[in-house]
Amino acid sequence: MMDPIFIVAIVFLVLGGAFGGYVVYHKETVIRPLEIEEHNAVEKMSCDELRLKHEGGQYWSFNNWKLGNTKICGCPNPPPQCTGGGGH
After folding, report:
1. Is there a contact between 67 and 39 (Cβ–Cβ < 8 Å)?
2. Least CB-packed of 20, 48, 49, 88 within 10 Å?
3. Coil, strand, or helix at residue 42?
């Protein structure tokens, strides 16, 4: 008969694997489509719309934030982080 600690360890491994699988599933089925939708929206935004979104920092992914930052630095009157003064 197996020692109870091995049974507990196997249960934790199975639960950990199931949780990891759920995280990957959630990332691909929920988060990824939101990131793609946001990417397309950021590409179409005007400078004023992008400034409001960028000030709030509400992005689904860092890549979309980088796209927004690059685009906002090309706008008239860029924020200080684009010109090297101030920022975070």
Report:
1. yes
2. 88
3. helix
51 contact partners, CB below 8 Å, separation of at least 6 = 72, 75, 79
- Which token pair is 19? 């949780």
| CA 19 to the chain's CA centroid | 20
Token digits for 14? 């199975």
Residue 59 CA to residue 15 CA, distance in Å, equals 31
Kindly report the pTM of this predicted structure: 0.68
- Residue-wise pLDDT tens digits, 48-87: 898 888 888 888 889 998 998 889 888 888 877 776 655 4
Residue that has been written with the tokens 């949780």 in this structure: 19
Inter-axis angle of helices 47-56 and 62-73, to 10 degrees?
A: 130
What distance in Å separates the CA atoms of residue 26 and residue 36, rounded to the nearest whole number? 15
